[in-house]
Design brief:
Layout: H1 3-20, H2 27-35, H3 37-57, H4 65-83, H5 86-117, H6 122-132, H7 145-152, E1 157-159, E2 166-174, E3 177-186, E4 189-196, E5 205-208, E6 213-218, E7 223-228, H8 234-244, E8 245-247
Antiparallel strand pairs: 1-8, 2-3, 3-4, 4-7, 5-6, 6-7
Helix pairs in contact: 1-3, 2-3, 4-5
Length: about 250
């Protein structure tokens, strides 16, 4: 079997694994993704679909639904009391109350889970994405500035030459939306940058993770997340990024 056939076979195996385990951290999978653009794009497409599916399944709970359910339950109990024996009524009461309690509990859990989901900041979403795409840190695609700007243009921003060497660039799913994600090089060290158009912060928020250090910093429109495994390079990188990216909106 020639090298092309070997590569196609590996890609097929990787995609089968990603289809069932998109968050796989197997070293062989990560190594393949770091060198195969097609499979890396395939993984991004899977994540986009998963996020769209999750958004489609999320149904907002109408205001006052709990009160309306309890009112309907009380009215039904009154109808039962008027038309049936006490024994039948008691049995129906129990049935209705159980049903109502179950619905109210489900609503409460749904609201609780929804609030839990939105209780953390965008920086945590970005960190989770970076951990999912660790393979990107090992990539060196030598991205041209024009290619980066083609990716950034739909988001209303543009980078200058002073942005420096670009190792990786992609549109990635964050919080059910799409954000540009690119990796810069600083003396051989990977600097992760994500632009979050919908997040407007007024102050500089530090990010302190067990592996990554960084900041969430606001701009004229949207905010930037800058991350590195080396905290010493962050100050220079913040200046480099913020002075090299123009808001075009």
């Amino acid at each position: 079997m020639d090298s092309k056939s070997d590569m196609e076979s590996t890609c097929l195996e990787v995609r089968r694994e990603l289809m069932t385990q998109p968050k796989s951290r197997e070293s062989a999978i990560m190594q393949h993704l770091s060198s195969c653009n097609v499979c890396a794009d395939y993984l991004t497409a899977i994540k986009l679909f998963d996020n769209k599916l999750a958004a489609a399944l999320h149904v907002e709970v109408p205001e006052g639904l709990e009160s309306r359910i309890l009112l309907a339950q009380r009215m039904s109990l009154q109808d039962i009391d008027q038309g049936r024996t006490r024994r039948t009524s008691n049995r129906s009461n129990y049935s209705w109350m159980s049903l109502a309690a179950g619905i109210v509990l489900a609503i409460g859990l749904s609201i609780g889970l929804y609030k839990l989901g939105e209780s953390h900041g965008v920086e945590r979403d970005v960190l989770a994405h970076v951990y999912e795409d660790l393979y990107a840190l090992d990539r060196d695609d030598n991205i041209r500035l024009t290619s980066l700007n083609n990716l950034l243009k739909p988001h209303g921003i543009q980078a200058k030459e002073s942005i420096g060497y670009i190792r990786y660039a992609s549109n990635c799913p964050i919080d059910d939306k799409i954000a540009p994600h690119f990796i810069l090089d600083d003396k051989g060290k990977a600097i992760t940058v994500m632009y979050i158009p919908w997040e407007n912060v007024s102050n500089r928020i530090p990010i302190d993770d067990k592996r990554f250090k960084g900041i969430l910093v606001g701009s004229a429109q949207g905010s930037f997340v800058i991350l590195s495994e080396d905290q010493e390079v962050l100050a220079n990188m913040e200046h480099r990024v913020m002075s090299s990216v123009e808001i075009r909106i």
